[in-house]
Amino acid sequence: MKKIKVGAVSYLNTKPLLFGVERSAELMQQIELLKDYPSKIAKQLIDGDIDVGLVPVAIIPQLKEHYIVSDYCIGAEGNVASVCLFSDVEIDKVEKVLLDYQSRTSVNLFKVLLKNHWKKNIVLEDAQKDFSEDIKGTTAGVLIGDRALKQRNKSKFIYDLAGEWITMTGLPFVFAAWIANKELPADFLELFNAKNAEGINNIEAVLQNVSCDFYNLRAYFTQNISYKISEEKLKGMRLFLELLQKL
């Protein structure tokens, strides 16, 4: 049987989602699991190199067909902690922003907030690897994932992009969802969804299998990240894609 190619993000926030997946012999026999950073997984889904991926929702308009195939996502109903604008100065004094190359949704969310929320014109620059050292003076940076959690201990000003979105819209935000570029077998999807749920419903077991010395992972998994897809989250996602189209 041809294996289903599944792409997942290699950040801490995916540990609860992948906990049950990677421990299921039945499921692992059906899939080939690839891990990378979000924009790389996104490109693989667009190019058809994988069948389903935990991808930034900003790529949905680029897919010929798309199916949200799980009840779980990387979302936020408050501050997400790991997707932020970091700066030495307040946003009114920022002159340039370096944009994280690892994520499309986060960078596009920042652009949407810049236009509609902060209503500012700032020089934007696509950053290269290891750009956190360049966040100084009037140069700020959008950082995501584990590197953002580390940067929290360094920057004086932190603007949480999920928190700012919620302030602006009153809606939660979805950063990434399990999206397929084709229809997949119903029995596979049922098993995949059930295995996603295992870690989400057993965070204590997940915590025993992961260590982190730069952020409180219990708080991250239970307070910052909101994993269950809801109608409000989908509403927020649709509004984001609408605002993105107007950029």
Q: Give the helix/strand class.
A: alpha/beta
**Helix percentage:** 25-40%
Number of strand elements: 11
Helix count, per DSSP?
A: 10
Overall pLDDT level: 96
Widest beta sheet: strand line-up:
2-1-3-10-4-11
Shape: globular
Low-confidence stretches: none
Rg is 18 Å
Written as H for each helix and E for each strand, in order along the chain, the element string is EHHEHEEEEHEEHEHEHHHEH
Largest sheet data: 6 strands, mixed
Keywords:
247 residues, alpha/beta, six-stranded mixed beta sheet, five-stranded mixed beta sheet, 11 strands
Describe the structure.
By secondary structure, the chain is α/β, with parallel strands linked by helices. It is 39% helix and 25% strand. The chain contains ten helices and eleven strands. The strands form two sheets. A six-stranded mixed β-sheet has the order 2-1-3-10-4-11. A five-stranded mixed β-sheet has the order 7-6-8-5-9. The longest helix has 16 residues, at 231-246. The protein is globular and about 55 Å long. It starts with a strand and ends with a helix. The model has no long low-confidence stretch (mean pLDDT 96).
List strands and helices in order, with pairings.
Blueprint: E1 4-9, H1 15-22, H2 25-28, E2 31-36, H3 38-47, E3 52-56, E4 67-76, E5 83-87, E6 96-99, H4 104-116, E7 123-126, E8 139-144, H5 145-151, E9 157-160, H6 161-169, E10 173-180, H7 186-200, H8 203-208, H9 217-224, E11 226-228, H10 231-246
Parallel strand pairs: 1-2, 1-3, 6-7, 6-8
Antiparallel strand pairs: 3-10, 4-10, 4-11, 5-8, 5-9
